[in-house]
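Recap quiz, item 2
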Amino acid sequence: MQCIRTVAVSMILACTVLLFSRITDAQSSVSVENFPDWSGVWQMIGPTVFDRATVAPADGRAGQHGVREYPPYNVEWEGKYVANIELIRQDRFPDTISTCGTFPGFPRTMNLPGAMEFVVRPEQVWILTEDGPSITRIYTDGRNHPPPDEIWPTYSGESVGEWEGDTLVFKTIGIKGAGDTILDRTGLVLSEQAQITTRLRRVDESTMEARMIIEDPEALTAPWSVNKQYERLPAGSRMFDVACAENNRNPVDEAGRTLTLDAEGNILDMNY
Amino acid sequence: MGREKNSSSILKLYSLIIFGFACSPVTAHHSGNMFDRERTVELTGTVKEFQWANPHIWIQVLVPDTAGLLEEWSIEGGVPNRLFRAGWRPTSFKPGDEVTILANPMRDGAKAGAFVGARLTDGSTLGRFSN
């Protein structure tokens, strides 16, 4: 008798789980159609200067000597930025992703030269980038950020958001800061205390827009607004690997100097 | 034969090339300052190897020096994914191809450079190449 009861209870439980999972699947498959279509492959418009509204000179490119932007840094972090700019002038400020194995990190995810995808699901949105490569998960299932004792600095950070019509509004915290990530190759950095609120939407058939407000009580004296746009690549475009370690012939030495190797792995630099 | 171009008209041309290089994926991954963007060398030789791989493609070219001895040059290009979208293919260069390559050479004189443009065996060009 006990055996029959156990089997019956087990069957009821199994049927309940099966029924629930089918309902959930059905809800997901239906509701995803109610979200905006962000399919396709996208690429940032313009060069990889993070804040093109303040870059000087106006046509300056990230990595060129003397190019800088003007975030509302406090004195201490302005000093850090100036020090990075000087290291760039000395060719001793390698891109953090030159170590070949780490993510670019958020918010640099929104400032990469390679292609990207925005994958919308009812419970999450994923931003997939070739560079890194990296994945930024934005939870939209109603959850909050984890409590402070469950957060540690990561490249992607912790992102939760919600939909306001066709605009995804999400807040990212828990990012890795200066020393582990940069925002661009002018030497821009943030602290681990940074909080980025992003409003992401499809402006028209061929354009996505991210409007970011960056707050960083450690590094900034005021909220910093940065806008980025992305264009849709031709239909049928594909994403590819950017596996940096595959054949990295430009390793960085301990002093931050970028070396150049020949096809056999020997250092080509004459004065090294 | 490797030779350096110095005329003012060529400098004007190469100002465009330099602009293009500044926008190119070569600068996306690491410092590109080992390359002298104010100078461009023209290398005519034979492709030894084409490395279509991340993070940057490399073209190994055997170029005769003034004495006729072959020197191996390492030419660094962009990221394969972006080059692919610009029309390059993993077979764009093949061992044995006779090519002429324009490159920004390394500042220290090492036999390496950053790819600017090339004329291939069949006369077609890649990147920014002008006679």
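Chain A has two helices and nine strands.
Residues 17-30 of chain A have pLDDT under 50 and may be disordered.
End of item.
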